[in-house]
TrEMBL record:
Pfam families: Glyco_hydro_1. One of its GO terms (molecular function) is beta-glucosidase activity. SUPFAM superfamilies: (Trans)glycosidases. Belongs to the glycosyl hydrolase 1 family. One of its GO terms (biological process) is carbohydrate metabolic process. The keyword Hydrolase applies. The keyword Hydrolase applies. Keywords: Glycosidase, Hydrolase. This is Glycoside hydrolase family 1. The lineage of its organism: Eukaryota, Metazoa, Ecdysozoa, Arthropoda, Hexapoda. InterPro entries: GH, Glyco_hydro_1.
Amino acid sequence: MFFNPMFNGDWPDIVKDRVAERSKAEGLASSRLPAFTPEEIEFIKGTSDYIAINHYTSMMVANGVEGTYSKTDYNFDTRAVTSNHPDWDESFVGWALVPSGVRELLKHLKKAYGDAPVIFAETGLPDDGSSLEDDLRIQYFHGYFCNIL
């Protein structure tokens, strides 16, 4: 979503429609998501040479129930419920190990933004520091690197 203006010149239609819908329900006169002018679209489109991402985990996503309109909230805007699959291993902070998720992300970026180079600015898995046995992190990096390459 956040790369879209730099590569395509505007927010995705689904984002514009959803934020406008939520803004109206919240009693606002216009969308909270500022619209780009034609000049801004022309100016920003194509301004990125690469994509830099931080990726740690993936989640399952389901359609959620409509949230309260008493406050503005990103989670209400998405109307999505996230969860981990019960078969996925998790770190002590609840991040699931889903190596195939990073491959799916890369496929999405390729489809949405073409051949822009992708840089992983951050990735990793926290541990609680209680042991030198680091098997879960080894499993994480092995799985993720195999799916990236």
